[in-house]
Amino acid sequence: MDDAEKRQAIGSWLSGPRSAAEDMGVDFGYRGQRLGMPETGPGSVAPVGRRIAALVVDWLLCQLIAYGLFAGGDSRSLGLWTMVVFFVMTVLLVGTLGFTPGKRIMRIRVVAENGARLGFVGTVVRSVLLCLLIPAVVFDRDTRGLHDRVARAVEVRF
Q1: Helices (H), 67-135
Q2: Is the CB of residue 35 less than 8 Å from the CB of residue 142?
Q3: CB atoms inside a 10 Å sphere around CB 93
């Protein structure tokens, strides 16, 4: 093996499996292509940055509500009450409107894979898994978290 081949082998290893597969001719397409969604614009899969920003806005809002309604001066129970408020808000708002305040600000909507409104059971399952956090940080190639895959949901731009 000469030096050029060694550099190519090391470079493919450092760039990750997706890059190495693309170098071999595998076409992954754009995010959401497998789901029949457009590449850009309304109805396309929402970018990860917007989804994280929406989550931060929602969490801070829920923390403020939990502090005002339940925790008061007891900072030990604030985290638990924040999670309860977050779960209730997510189930109610995503189940009825398709978005939370943070998602609305970031122009994101949660829909079923077929583009319809996400049903009640799907919303509850998605919210429970989102509160567990780990399923939300495990992504597929469409950048959908495990919580969205199990609930058969997609976060799209609007």
Answers
A1: 78-96, 101-105, 120-132
A2: yes
A3: 19
Q: Is residue 112 classed as helix, strand or coil in its secondary structure?
A: strand
Model's pTM, two decimal places? 0.79
What is the number of other CB atoms lying within 10 angstroms of the CB of residue 30?
Answer: 13
* 97 Cα distance to chain centroid: 17
Phi, psi of 157 (to 5 degrees): -75, 150
Chunk the chain into consecutive blocks of 10 residues (it has 158) and report each block's average pLDDT, rounded to whole numbers.
65 61 70 86 92 96 91 78 96 96 97 93 95 87 90 94
Coil, helix or strand at residue 23: helix
Is residue 113 within 8 Å of residue 148, measured between CB atoms?
A: no
